[in-house]
From TrEMBL:
Gene3D superfamilies in alphabetical order: Homeodomain-like
GO cellular component terms given for this protein: nucleus
Biased composition annotated in UniProt, kind: Basic residues: 1-11
Protein name: Myb-like domain-containing protein
Residue span, Myb-like domain: 34-97
InterPro entries in UniProt: ASIL1/2-like, Myb_DNA-bind_4, SANT/Myb
Compositional bias annotation for Low complexity: 13-25
Start-end of Acidic residues biased regions: 182-195
GO biological process entries: hormone-mediated signaling pathway; response to mannitol; response to salt stress
Ranges for region Disordered: 1-35, 167-195
The organism of origin for this protein: Pisum sativum (Garden pea)
Length: 258
């Protein structure tokens, strides 16, 4: 006995649809690795050093790369360990600054010191923004900012890895004194980026206008050259025709006189 044709068609349709679902399903994006407590501490300190060395000016792309390298080195990461990129460091600092502003606003509204204790990075970020003393002069409380979630074994392991890293080479104490005036760095960076974008747009527009001008000049020169060539060709043809006419007239006069 043979199976009915409609059953075969149903099986083929089901198989093709399942294959289509398997092929069309997009791969899942890997979840970003969250920041650890130690990475956040090293980021704040590395950014503080770089920011003060620039006299609290905005960091550029290559300088964010340097911050990312310092963070990875001070965490004891080697090349096989996934470390944070320059873009991730920049975004993390933006989030830390936003959180600090909100915590500071809440502290002002409540007039209570408990708000500064509710966020473990408040004092570090507050010192970063206000800048009372260089970080090399002021000793940070060790117990307050070290990662309490680490076990003794993990902390010992990190210290042994850190000793083999390039921590001692890249670790530099800041030598620039902190300034007293408060600057909204986020707005300053946005204004600088807008100015750079405007300047780049103007340069591109000017370059395009120069290119168009050169092309127009080239076309005019080609037209002028072609017009001159045609005029010379017409003159040459007229001279040949006039010469032939003179020869014919001369021959006619000679034979006519005889």
């Amino acid at each position: 006995h043979h199976s009915p044709p409609h059953n075969k068609f149903h099986k083929m349709t089901t198989t093709s649809s399942s294959l289509q679902l398997t092929v069309s399903s997009p791969p899942k994006k890997p979840q970003p690795i969250p920041w650890t407590h130690q990475e956040t501490l090293n980021l704040i300190r590395a950014y503080q050093e770089k920011w003060y060395s620039l006299k609290r000016g905005p960091l550029r792309g290559s300088q964010w790369e340097e911050v990312a390298v310092v963070v990875a080195a001070r965490c004891g990461y080697d090349y096989n360990h996934p470390s944070k990129t320059a873009l991730q460091c920049r975004h993390k600092m933006e989030k830390l600054r936003q959180r600090h502003r909100s915590e500071k606003h809440r502290l002002t509204a409540t007039s209570s010191a408990a708000s500064s204790r509710s966020w473990q990075y408040f004092r570090l970020m507050d010192d970063l923004e206000r800048g009372p003393l260089p970080i090399s002069v002021r000793a940070l409380p060790h117990n307050e900012y070290e990662n309490n979630n680490y076990s003794d074994g993990e902390r010992g392991k990190n210290q042994s890895v850190r000793s083999r890293s390039i921590h001692n080479i890249l670790h530099q104490k800041p030598s620039v004194a902190r300034q007293r005036d408060e600057i909204d760095d986020d707005e300053e960076e946005e204004e600088e980026e807008e100015a750079m974008a405007t300047e780049l747009t103007a340069e591109l527009k000017s370059f395009a206008e120069r290119i168009v001008g050169l092309e127009n000049m080239k076309m005019e020169m080609m037209k002028e050259t072609e017009r001159f060539r045609l005029e010379m060709e017409n003159k040459r043809i007229r001279m040949i025709i006039e010469s032939q006419c003179r020869i014919i007239d001369s021959i006619g006069r000679v034979f006519g006189s005889s």
